[in-house]
Prior knowledge:
Blueprint: E1 4-10, H1 18-32, E2 37-43, H2 45-48, H3 55-71, E3 80-83, H4 88-98, H5 103-107, H6 110-121, H7 133-136, H8 138-147, E4 153-155, H9 161-178, E5 187-189, H10 219-227, H11 246-254, H12 257-268, H13 273-299, H14 302-331
Parallel strand pairs: 1-2, 2-3, 4-5
Helix pairs in contact: 3-13, 4-8, 4-14, 8-9, 10-13, 11-13
This protein binds adenosine-5'-diphosphate and tryptophan (TRP).
Amino acid sequence: xxxxxxxxxxxxxGMPHMGNWVGALRPTVELSQxxxxxxxxxxxxxxxxxxxxxxxxxxxxxxxxxxxxxALGLDPAKSVLYxxxxxxxxxxLSWVLACFSPKGLMNRAHAYKAQVQKNxxxxxxxxxxxxxxxxxxxxxLMAADILLMGTNLVPVGSDQQQxxxxxxxxxxxxxxxxxxxxxxxxxxxxxxSTAVLPGIDGRKMSKSYNNHIPIFEAPERxxxxxxxxxxxxxxxxxxxxxxxxTVFQLYRVLASPSETEAMKRAYAEGIxxxxxxxxxxxxxxxxxxxxxxxxxxxxxxxxxLERIFSEGRDRAGQAARKIMSKVRRAIGTA
Length: 334
Ligand code: ADP
Ligand code: TRP
């Protein structure tokens, strides 16, 4: 049987934090190591352009996504790692799919609706304020990313599930129109069990709340952030509830099941917050010290990253051209 094609993209918009790691990076790297699947992992730089207008930054963040994946164990020789903007067929297919997208489908898309809701809440009279056509047609570009590689499975966070369903709808419209199975119908793979990781103030960890702990960070800064994690006022010796403790939630995703059990007992026995935080810091360093060194090495060597991108461009380009030529034949432009 042919290997399943697994594909996912990440927008290059900043440095990765523990929330990204638990919710997206770690699962992606694990998937990339499975032998019965071929992974396509790409940097969605043209999706980032909907909001990021600093050329130098976009380029640097693109390197950063690639270096992050590799530092955490994704093997660019086994998986296909590439930059969306390196594959011109993505943008060609995007136009073709746009001609199959009912406008109403875009009106209902998550990224666009979120902006409209924000405008509503801010009392804006123009509900489309701040919406460029890139934001509006975002799901079409995403559908092109997915369909162009013959993707079976798309691992994404729950906020992206609807966009994958749109890709599937568009694939069906197209196949039906031309009476052949040109596009594989993709399915979203949403890891429901991945809990939302809290940040140092207890809210969802997010760059937009500035409550995040970056995974490739200087040790002194990590220690400071961990020491700032909010706790209740219970004293050393007083039993503590692990489930409501951010320190414990963060410890748990880094520790083995037996370490986690031991820590639960320590909470029941009244571990001091300072000691719980020290244990978290130690586990953090054990997990991220080596990847941080690899990440830094890669970021200091952009030629190597460019070499990896150019290999990815060749491999992803091959797959893309195959499907795009079928599309062109069907629609009558080839
Ligand atoms: P941020 O909120 O910091 O801007 P993004 O929206 O860029 O993060 O998140 C990218 C991916 O990282 C998401 O698809 C999601 O799966 C994952 N992620 C982000 N924050 C968390 C979190 N606090 N807990 C679990 N997963 C998260
Ligand atoms: N829209 C995704 C996000 O914001 C990134 C993305 C772009 C993507 N194209 C994709 C994800 C294709 C999966 C498949 O996270």
